Structure formats: C-alpha cells, structure tokens
Amino acid sequence: MTSATFAHGRPSPGRRLLGWFREWLPAFVVIAIGLVTWQWVLPDVLGIQRFLLPRFSAVAQTFWDERTALWSAGWFTFKEALGGWAIGSGLAFVSALVLARWRPLGRALMPYAVAANAIPIIAFAPITNAWFGTFSPRSKMAVAAVLCFFPVLVNSLRGLTSVRPESIELMRSYAASEASTFRRVRIPNSLPFVFSGLKVASVLAMIGAIVGDYFGGSIEALGIQIRSSVGLSQFEYAWAAILVASILGLLFYGVISLAEHFALRWHPSSRRIE
Amino acid sequence: MWYALPVQPGGEATRARRATSWVAAGVVRVAVLVLVFLVLGALWEGYRWFWINRDWTVPFEVQDRTMPHLHEIVGQLFREWPEGGPVLGSTLLDAALFTAKEAAVGFAIGAVVGFALGAVIAHFKVLQRGVMPYVVASQTIPILAVAPMVVVGLGNGVSVLGHTWVPADWLRVSVIAAYLTFFPVTINTVRGLQSADPLALELMHSYAAGRWRVLWRLRLPTALPYLFAAFRIAATASVVGAIVGELPSSIQSGLGGAILNFNQYYSAEPKNLWATNLVAAALGISFFLVVVLAEKLVVHRAPERLV
Amino acid sequence: MSAEAVVSVRGVTKVFGKGGVTALKDIDLDVAQGDFVSLIGPSGCGKSTLLRIVGDITEPTSGDVTVNGKSARRAREDRDYGIVFQAPVLFDWRTVAKNIALPLEMQRWDRGRRQARVAEMLDLVELTGFEKLYPWQLSGGMQQRVSIARALAFAPPLLLMDEPFGALDEMTRERLNLELLRIWSETGSTVVFVTHSISEAVFLSTRVAVMSPRPGRVSALIGIDLPQPRTVETREQPRFFELVTEVREALHATGADEVEEQLAAEGPE
Q: Which domain, by its residues, includes A86?
C-alpha cells in the first residue's frame, strides 16, 4: 500500500541536547559579548556616562538591592498591562467577528482600522488620566486597551476572512448556517493570526502601561519610578526598573507563545505566519 | 477563480467606460470617508448627550471637561492661544512639523541601517545565526520606556576617542525613531531577500547572472512588499517614538512638549489637549499614508483577495 | 427518462457580471441513476460552473435544475449530494477522522454512529490506521482520498467531483481512478465528474458530455460502452482508443469552429 509521510521518530536525548545547544550557542555568545560591551566597552572605551547607561555591575547591584520595591512596582504595572490587553483584545476579537459576519461593513471599515493603527495612541494618555484619575490604574489600562485594540482587530479580521473559497463552498454544500461556518471554519482558521496579534498586543500593552505613566501616574507604578529616579539622577535604579519591565514583557510574550503552541498543535511547522 | 473571465479586448468605448468607473470608485471612496466621520461624530455626540442626561459615571464621568463637543475641539484650532497670540492651529502645526522632522530623519536613518544590516545578514548565512538573536533581543529593551533617558543622556554628549559630540535636541529624538525603525526593517529585509522563488533563482542562473544582477533584478523586487510592510510599521513607530522622546521637558518645540504643556493646564482649557491629540493623530496617519502611497507607486502587485 | 433521472438540467443559462460573460447557454442534460457522467471541455467551457449549479453553490441566470426529484436548493438542504473539489479542502486543524466526520457532526449524528461510519469510510478508501494524522502529514493523493471519504460519509445518492485528481501525478491518478470505480460500484451512487483528461473521462464514465466554450454548451454526448468492471487492461483495448479518439475529435470539432468564429468577430475592431 502507499506509505505515509510520517514525522520522524524522536532522536535520543543526547542528540537532542546537542542539537539544542548548537542552535542556541550563537545567541549565548552574542549575549556574552553584549554584557562585556555593557560592562567595559561602553563606559571605558566610548565614554558613555552614567547619565546614559551605567555599568552593568552597578545596575545589577541595584537590581538585587531593590528587588522588593522593583518587583512590586513591576507587578502593579503588569496588572495594568494585563487588564488593558485582555479588554482591548477581547473587544477587538468580538468586533472582528462582527465585521467578518457582515462583509460589506468589514470591507468598508478595514482600511480605517488599518489607518487608525497609525495614530499615536500614547498621546491619549493624559486624557485617560483626566477620565479615570491620574493615580488610578484604570487610566493606564485604558491606554493599553486602546493600543491593543487595532492590531488584534486587523489580525483577527484577516484571519477570519482569509479562508479558501472552496471551504466556504464545501460548507454551503452542507447547507450550513453562517454561525456554523464561523464556528467550524472561520474561527479555527483565524487562530494563528489571532495569536500573532495577541503577541504584538502584549508588547504594546506593557509599553503603553509604562510610557503612559510618563504623563502622570501612581507612585506604585514602574513608569513613575523610572521618571522620578531619573529626576534624582539615580540612573542605576531607572535601568534596573527597565530590566524588570523587559523581563515581565518577555514572560508575558512567552506565556502567550506557549498557549499558542498548545492551541496550534495541528499546525504544520513549515507554515509561515506573519 | 475556477472560472477564468477572459480578458476583453479594448476599444475606445471600453476605455471610456473604464475611466468613468474609476472616477465613480473614487467618488464612492470619498463618500464612505465622509459617512464614517459623520457616524463617528454622531456616536461621540450621542454618547455624550446620553451619558450627561443619565448622569452615569461609568466608565467615567462625562462633562465638558472630560468630553468636549467635537465641533468645539475643531473650533479650538482656529482660536488664538494664548489670547493675542498665534492661532492654536498654527502653533500645533509648527509643533507637528518639528516632530515630523525628528520622526522622518529617524525613520530614514533606521531604514538605511536596517536595510544594510538585513542585506548583509541575508547574504552571509553564518551571520544569521549569530546576529539575528541579538537583533531580536534588541527589541526586548522597551525603547519607548528608555526614550526620555536616552534623549537626556545624549544631551550630555557622546565621547569617542577623546572627542565629545553633543547632538542637537531634535537629533537625539531621531535616535529613538531610528531605533524603533531598524528592527522591523532588518527582519523584513532578511525575510524579503530570502523569499525569492527557488525556480526564479534557477532561471537567473541559467542566464549566467552574477550575484549583483540577481540581487538587483530578482531579490530586490521580491523583497519590496516585505520592506514596505516594515515601513508601514516603522512609520507609525517613528512618530510615536518622536513624541515620547520629547517628553523630557527640555524639548518644547514638538508635539510631545505641547501635550505636556496642555496637560498641565488641562483644567483651565481641556480643548487644547484634545486639539493636540487630533493633530498628533493626523501626523501619524499622514506618515502612514505616505508609505502606502509610495508602495502603490513602487510595487505593482495583485491586491490581496479576501473571502 | 426524466422521471428516473437523478439530475435533470433544463435550459440552464449562466451569465456572469453586467459585462455579460456567458458561461453557459441553454444546457440540457440528464443523469440517470447509477450513471457516471464526465463533463469534459477546454478552459472556459463552463463545466465547473455547471457542476456548481447542480450543487446549488451557484445560481443559474435562467433554467431549471432538478436533483433527486427536488429543486437544487432543496437537494442541497437535504444533503442529497457530496462534493469533492480539485484541492482536498481538508481542515488543517482536524485529524483525518474528524475531517471525515465533519458532515456527520453537522447532521447531528451521535458519537458512536459517527465513529462507526468514519471507520467504514476509511476502510472504503483504504486509509485505515491514518485516523489520528493531520492533513499536512499525508501525501496529495491520500488527502484526496480523505476528501472522497468525507463526501461519501453520509451516503448521498449523488457525488459531484470537480477535477479531483487534477493536481496529482499520472500514476497516482490512474490508481485513484480504479479506486473511484470500485467505490462507485460498491456504493451504487451516481457521479458527475468534471475533468480535463480525455483518457480519464473515457476510462471512468458510462457517458461523456463534451462541452465547448463561448458560450458554454454541451456539444456532444458520447456513450461509453466499455465493459464493467473496468481494469488496468481496459486502457489497452482497441475500443478504448476508438472512444478516446471519438471524444478528442468531438472536442476539436467544436473548439476549432469556436476559435474561427471568435477571430472573425474580433477582426474588424
């Protein structure tokens, strides 16, 4: 009988470890070089002063010393980002469903959604401060939500509508209702696109929460702490705070990637996603 | 399409028909634009009227301070601010141009650096393994969060080999825009240059085309759509980067400065801040539209067909 | 004759767009119970359009279509046919088994019944053991077999196929032709089959409808009197070659006339 093209059997653990190591070695080397540059080349060779970027050792020291304060601020800001991300992405997906269901509306509004993505939403932060109060986390959540809305909307809409015509014809041959077609075809098809949008949105949400604070916010938030520590010339603290923000951002992104991996197990690895 | 519509041979009558339908399409587009604005305006005023009537405070209290009338916001642009001084619109326009300069210069620098870096990486496969992770890692630094510090820090000068150079204030902000631009451009340049159809490459080889020829005639045109996708993202990012970079109060002349300024006096005159937002939105969108227009002119490609 | 016919097409015309491209003009066709009818013709003759009109996926501009004694729309709503496209059109996020089960899920069959039928279908297309695989793990030929299994899952009396083996290589094609004939005789269904390939049309069918373009119409109906069941040897029989030649000449005859007419019409402009 015809033979199937199966995925390869799994190699031995030793081989896998070696392969993993080989793939990540260049990245490690680069990170090592980066740290060396940070610690010695930038300050000593290029004369980058404390104002711009303190030595890595100084930042690391502050990072450790102030870890409680830093992490609690980080957590505060992360909650703002997470809340905004959830609200913005949720609204965006629902809107995408509506726009995909009523195609003429979707087709007409899609260019506007794409253009709206180009608006510097961050300029809106002072206004959300006026709405919800400068010190309330809800103002930054609102900024994050608006930032997440358009990328997730555009991506979800694209995913919901980039279905092969034959799949729709097939469902028509089953006399399927619109809802059924959505449930069985469009939504599963859109998942890779939606996750792509969610990942982009997670980065935007985190940045939005922090930068939003630059226009005014609660002292418990990371952004305000960065701003005030810069004002007090405590650059080590500021960069340590940035480090916390980066780590949290990476974790956020990583968790979504993990969820994507599980949700899209059926996806052929050869497929490219935007 | 499973049924291929045969190409109709053209005659004078057909050309005239096509021209009129093109104009008609344009008119429809403008009509839709007007309609969308009208609907949005109606939603705004409707929400406002409804919430004020019902005295609802969720999600926030609605009054003149938090949600001015749309026409008043637009009207504010034509009022003098401060009294006896220039019209607000003209002040904001100057600020927008200042910010635009920062963003455009940054975009240009970032695009050139990004493209060069991407072209080198695409060419030397070895580099891809080594450099790409670093390129990706560069984006884990939330540059927007760092922007104010970078701008202030560069103000103290950069000393290389004994010489200290203090860049102009707007140029420092351009650095932020450049940083935000170079990443998407690099990634997409690599992707784009490597996306040439293997069969097309074989064709070029059969013409004994040298490496540069192949680059110029095949890889570059294939890479253009990817490049423009990156440019679209970068254009927006540059504007955002420029605005955020201006936040340290030493830079007053741009939109960021205007936002901070009007934020301070928000209670006195909220409409100024809203007007500034309007101008900032217009700036972001115009940058985006410039890229889209350039793409339409440079790239001749079948439009995306969505079902 | 029309009382027994599974598919009855009368005076069907299809015009696309206001520009007026006439894809089909006054098509009359009857397909009897148990028939295997191939539609063959050059590009643009409307054979795929006709198939989709029979399946009520496209609506005709004028004319009548009766499927299984009902209107095409009723037949579709009652799910009286299964359709197979040129591309397998499997859902990437479903396993082979779940892909075949799709129409059964939509008809609300309960789990046990579904699983039993899926196993039956896999056996029919000889893919038992591949239930848990995903489409991308299968070859093109196997994917098409899955889509055939799916089309037959709810045992429809009619099977519509739009160049299902067009994307496959010749050897896989010939093998799948034999399998299709086996399935056809085992299930006793009626098949309307669109193809580009003359030899495939002659090998598979009981009747071949030759279509010509601009405007699309049925220009010849050729009965294929080769004995059943057909085997690999059938392709080597003299009668096979005679019929292939007959079909080919029918195609050329109308095609050539058409081209000349077209050129004459466009000339002076």
A: 62-263
Q: Is A273 helix (H, G, I), strand (E, B) or coil?
A: coil
Same-domain check for residues A168 and A258: yes
Are A118 and A152 in a shared domain? yes
Q: Are residues A120 and A237 in the same domain?
A: yes
Is A47 strand, coil or helix?
coil
Residues A33, A120, single domain; the answer is no
Q: Are residues A250 and A132 in the same domain?
A: yes
Note the Cα B141 to chain centre separation in Å. Answer: 20
Query: What does the alpha-carbon distance between residue B294 and residue A122 come to, in Å, rounded to a whole number?
Result: 26
**Number of Cβ pairs < 8 A linking chain B and chain C:** 23
Nearest CA to B66 out of C177, A126, A68, C36 is that of A126
Residue of C nearest to A269 (CA): C136
Shortest CA distance from A185: residue in chain C? C91
User: What SS3 class is residue C158?
Assistant: strand
Contact list in B for residue A207 (CB cut-off 8 A) is 142, 144-145
Tell me, yes or no, whether A139 lies in a domain. Answer: yes
Chains that touch A (3 or more CB pairs under 8 A): B, C
Residue B283 at interface with chain A, using a CB cutoff of 8 Å:
yes
pLDDT one-digit tens code per residue, B62-90: 777 778 888 888 888 888 777 777 888 88
Residue A177 lies inside a defined structural domain of this protein: yes
Q: How confident is the model at residue B122 (pLDDT cuts 50, 70, 90)?
A: confident
Are residues C48 and B8, on separate chains, in Cβ contact within 8 Å?
Answer: no
Tens digit of each residue's pLDDT (9 = 90 or more) over B145-190: 777 777 777 776 666 666 677 777 788 889 888 988 888 898 888 8
* Whether residue A122 is found in the same domain as residue A191: yes
Count of structural domains, chain A = 2
SS3 A51: coil
Does A258 fall in a domain?
A: yes
For residue B74, the distance in angstroms to the closest alpha carbon of chain A comes to: 16
Parallel, antiparallel, or unpaired: how do β-strands C70-71 and C81-84 relate?
A: unpaired
- Whether chain B has a CB inside 8 Å of the CB on C17: the answer is yes
B120: left (phi over 0), alpha (psi -120 to 50) or beta: alpha
**Residue A78 lies inside a defined structural domain of this protein:** yes
Confidence category of residue B12, pLDDT binned at 50, 70, 90: low
Q: Is the pLDDT of residue C2 over 50?
A: no
**Predicted model pTM:** 0.79
Is the domain of A228 the same as that of A160? yes
Question: Is B141 at the interface with chain A, CB within 8 A?
Answer: yes
Residues of A with Cβ-Cβ distance to B288 under 8 angstroms: 115, 117-118
| pLDDT-above-70 percentage for chain B | 87
Chain A residue with minimum CA distance to C77: A175
> How close, in Å, is residue C133 to chain A by CA atoms?
9
- Which A residues 1-60 touch B at CB under 8 Å? 26-27, 29-31, 34, 46-49, 51-53
Whether residue B215 contacts residue B284, with contact meaning beta carbons closer than 8 Å, is answered with no
